[in-house]
Records
---
Amino acid sequence: MEMTKREETIDRIERVLDLTHKDSLTITITRLTAERAVSMLKEQEPVEPVIHPETKYHRMYKECGACGAYLVNGARYCSRCGKEVKRDG
């Protein structure tokens, strides 16, 4: 079975860690592996909600910044895509 990029990145980092002495302060991984790891970490960051201002006919509402789904008031996570949504304040 073929590994996903996520699984492959984790596997590569784990192999380097296994081959490196436990007391070593530095390890060397390829640039591609480092870029993939950073990309995966960034994907986990909360997204900014899209805030639609209150108008004469509609109350203010928010949408998920990742998929555009309507956010229930006070929601921490999008019910459609599961991304964490940044909160006010």
Note: The helical segments are 5-19, 31-43.
---
Amino acid sequence: MNFEALDGTKLVLLMIAGAAFAAVGLYLMVRPKVGDAAKIELFGLKFESSSAGLLVFVVGAAFLSVPLFAPEKPTPRGTATAGASGGTPSLKSPALRLPEDAEVSEQEPNDRSQGANIVAFGQTVAGDVKGDEADWFLIAMPPEPPREISLMVRQVEGNSVDVELFDANEFKLKSMSVAAGAKYLNADVDGNTQFFVRVKIFRLFKRTRYELRLSDKLGN
């Protein structure tokens, strides 16, 4: 039988409740009884107890034993929290922030959304992707975001490149393929504070160089 992991606070509350129930149950069992009462032996000691006291003690003992079977839920690590400027989004695992230069190159590994390169809004990033991998980027919206955004992707060298745009919850919004030159993918911001971009190709053992930039529809 598998028990669901509980956080530390819930485990402590269960132990406190168990101790309280067990103490009340012991009191009910050891206090002087009037009339007939059930006789039980506990840790070598004999007590006269009512069924109510025994029941309360059993409930408390069950609560106290929960931590022996239910594992403690681990605390998430590597969480990055958004700052006042909204520049660093929340992530489930460490991600690499690229320098604030106007044009930068991707940094590997970034083949999963959890390790996406963090790119500034309006910044151009150059990448190199091969057929058995994908490149992920995370772009945070500025404090006063535009109503619409435009994702520019330029195929620089190699095969055609396929690009997908995801919202803050990693729900795919749009996609396009760029075989030569530059193409633009437009989308509404719709309250999103950040967007994910995935770049890939469908040809094994081939490589493609590309550039991308997420900005408003005016190119800023």
Note: Residues 40 and 98 are 70 Å apart (CA to CA).
---
Amino acid sequence: MNRTPMKRRGKGARERTKGMDKHTPYLCERAGGVWLGFKVPKGEPHSDGCQCEICGAYIGDVWGHRAHINERKGPADDNIWNLIVAGPCCHDHDAFSDGGLRCGTAEALRIVKEKNEQMGIRRE
């Protein structure tokens, strides 16, 4: 039986993409970037001017730099309180044991809380 690419990846991958995508424009703005949209030509960036929220390094496009702070266990974990924009120097599961983040999970949660509050986003 032939399986489509989405079926090969499984339902969990579909849910994950949908949940993270919903918050990506906001994450871009929170990281100091400008959101260019989902419907950009293939190979073009979805955003511009984004910076790593941990170290401040320029990363350009937010796409590919969204990271979960606490391990994702389901679609509910794809929320703006559990996602951080982190560059490759600050997000590496092989190099950093505490959630794969250079600063650790507690500091990442503090950074996200502070930035969300500056943007006027309150926890529900």
Note: Residues 11-30 form the longest helix (20 residues).
---
Amino acid sequence: MDLVTRFGKVSSGNIASLENLVLGKRYPVTRAVRQTTQYGPTILVSLWDEPTNANIRVFLPKRFAEVFEDSDIEAINSGTRHYYLLSQGRTANGRSFKLALEE
């Protein structure tokens, strides 16, 4: 893949907050990348949003960085495994997001 294509893939789609996801909606995970931010290691996932026909990129909470193995990320990116991310809102104390991953 040439630089122009790789650059386009990275720059396409908006980075959104988990707060912006529709509760209970199944968002297909189209890509996952392990990143290190100023807050530490995390996973950046691209989600397909059907009504807008666009990718939405969201950073998963830091606690999920340990859950994703490199083989999981490779399977998502190669298309051999298909997952859906669901937002279930926030926990009762409002401090963290409740998320689900389904096949």
Note: The longest helix spans residues 3-11.
